[in-house]
Amino acid sequence: MDFFQFKKLAKVLVIIGCCFFISQAYAKIPEHFQQQIETLSYRPLNNTGNLQIATDSLNNTWLKGQLDKSYLYAPVVLYIPNAHIFAYDLYIYNFDRLHLVDPNLDSQDNPIKGRYAQHYIVTDNQTYYINLYQAPTDNLRIIATERSQFGVMEAKQLLFIGLYYGISVISILINLIFYIIFKDKRFITYCLLQICIFISLFYEDGMFYYLSNGSLQMKYLLVWNIPITSFLACLFTGYFLDIKAFFVQYKIMFIALFSASFLSSLIFMFYPDKLLLNLTTILSFIGPIFCLIIAATQFRKNVYARFLLSSFGIIVIFGIGYTFYLNLSAQELSYFDINAFRLVSALEIIIITFAIIYKVKNIQDQNHKYRAEIESYLTNQKSLKNTADAKKDISMLDILRIQYDLTPREAEVLTCIWKNMSNNQISEHLFISVSTVKYHVSKLYTKLEINSRNQAMNLRKDAKY
Predict the structure, then answer these.
(1) Residue 171 to residue 167: CA distance in whole angstroms
(2) 9-58 pLDDT, tens per residue?
């Protein structure tokens, strides 16, 4: 046997081995069920290449696709990278019979963890069928790749999203720490806003599915998280630009807007219609867009409005683009995919975090300046008070003595007059004669420009400091 014959025989043995593996690994379905699947009225699915779509009598959505020829008899991983499709059934051929493939099991039937439902397959036919049940087909992608390539692709993707999660978590922790230190509402509001955005991307990346081994579906998470994120974005704008009074002016409009958003989210839980989801999304975007308009009006005079407009503006644009990309399945909007949104979000986190730190630092500097001015003012007031107290310590008698050049004896006589003493009483009190008392009283009248004792008493009442 020459080399080429040996190579041909080895290839045949590999094919037989693969086919035997296929026949043992997957559950064969009844023939009548296979006929029902194959005879459905399939039609091309828009913008999805070789995919075809059909609906059965139970209103389940079926897809029919074709694998690349190079994947025949090769170990392949097939999955749908869409967090909104929680579970589906995959059917592949084996010797012209359809088999159901269990998800998240490797070639040895060992359970594996993934961000989405993964099917490890080896098949001898390019055609496969998928039962999506009632899952949406918007922006549907089905990826089939060799297992070795799948590991490389997943590692690169996890590295990319891991960088974003690292930046996001660090930003959340920094803002939380700064809030504890400075007690500034900008930090805690932005922290909550980042948590909401983090949850949305964490969900879209299939991380909840990964952590819960596929048991945590949370299909109503986004319909609630979107309006909450919108509310926090508007609240943060008010704190960041110090325009809370402006929001009070439009309070009724914002209350009506967010009430409608949350009401549509609540109705969606009982009637999960796509129109309600789109309505919730549109209502949720109105608030942030209005905030951007407010920031635009302050673009020239407020440097923080420029920060907000440049970062939040890009986020809102990419958020709207990503929403249209998901709902319209428009390939021309593919540059608004989740990776682009994640990259823009990471840049926004860095810009806004530094802007908040810069703003709070300025506020702290202003507070120190105001505190120094207040301390200086209080010091001056204390000095003035001390001077006034010193003046108060000077008696009215001393003021009159200085003002009218009274002699010590005249001052003593004036004090006695203020005590309602008569001339005789003054004479006895000061040990001088009555005539001497009269002399000093006469001198007092002349110096003080008064004519009676009553006027002397009034001098005491009218004395000014």
Answers:
(1) 6
(2) 555 455 555 555 544 556 778 889 999 999 999 999 876 567 999 999 99
CB 257 within 8 A of CB 226: no
- Rounded to whole angstroms, the Cα distance separating 397 from 460 reads 8
Q: How many CB atoms sit inside 10 A of residue 357's CB? A: 16
Alpha-carbon dihedral sign for residues 382, 388, 394, 395 = negative
Q: What is the pLDDT of residues 189-203, one digit of tens each?
A: 989 999 999 999 999
Question: What is the distance of C-alpha 133 from the center of its chain?
Answer: 35
pLDDT at 359 over 80: no
Alpha-carbon gap, residue 329 to 460, rounded angstroms:
97
Provide the token pair at 124: 């001898």
The answer to whether 115 and 209 are in contact (CB under 8 A) is yes
Residue 426 above 50 pLDDT? yes
**Domains detected in the chain:** 7-148 (2.60.40), 161-370 (no CATH), 396-462 (1.10.10.10)
Instruction: Determine phi and psi for 283, rounding to 5 degrees.
Output: -60, -35
Any residues with CB less than 8 A from the CB of 34 and at least 6 apart, and which?
97, 98
| Stated pTM of the model | 0.72
Out of 218-232, 336-350, 406-420, the most confident range is 218-232
User: How many other CB atoms sit within 10 Å of the CB of residue 181?
Assistant: 10
Give me the DSSP letters along 106-167.
-TTS-B---SS-EEEE--S-SEEEEEEET---TT---EEEEHHHHHHHHHHHHHHHHHHHHH
